[in-house]
Design goal:
Keywords: Signal. By secondary structure, the chain is mostly beta strands. It folds into two domains: 29 residues; 172 residues, Immunoglobulin-like, CATH 2.60.40. It has one helix and 14 strands. The strands form two sheets. Strands 2, 3, 6, 7, 8, 11, 12, 13 and 14 form a nine-stranded antiparallel β-sheet that branches. A hairpin with a 2-residue loop joins strand 4 and strand 5. It is globular, with a radius of gyration of 22 Å. It binds calcium ion. Calcium ion binds next to loops.
Length: 204
Amino acid sequence: MQSVVRRSVAALTLSTALIGSSAALAAPANAAKWTYDDAVGDVVKQSLEDGTTTPAPEKANVDVTRIVGNHHGRFLTIKVRTKAKMTGPLGATSMIRTPRKRLMLMTSRMPQMGNQTMLLDFTKKRDPEVRCRGLARTFDKSRTVMTIKVPRSCIGNPEWVRFSMTLSTVDMFSEDFITYDDDALREGVSQYSMGKMSPKLRHG
Ligand SMILES: [Ca+2]
């Protein structure tokens, strides 16, 4: 009898341990803040005309070295640090995923043509543009840090977010359709995706 009890206790303990571990795996165990150090010299030149890609480590103005996501308080804040000053034409594209939405954040700066920062919500049935008060992009004095603040209310106040970030520039005077891109969350870029996604950042 005692051995039966002992076996049952052992089985119960084991199953509890298994349940415990699977619950831990399924739980969103991520922090609200996440930092990733991106490789240096991994900018890629892409020709949209013939589909070729070649390394372009000299384009240090879009070479991301660090990215920090912070899902805290009223904002999702994304900070992008580059190896050299972010001069010239600049574009940043970020896919944002939440439990209920798929969005795209785009910010650009073209010399003599102005700046634009916009948020698109692909889960909306009509006009995807989100009129988002408080959506802002700033640069620090050294121009090596760009900060984008997205009010959480514009993305549905989600429990968690994931995001990607690709930084790009173009040759203004080139006749070919060429971009220089760095996927901030992986070495180089992938031709077949919009950018690698961060882990889930829970709201904290
Ligand atoms: Ca880089």
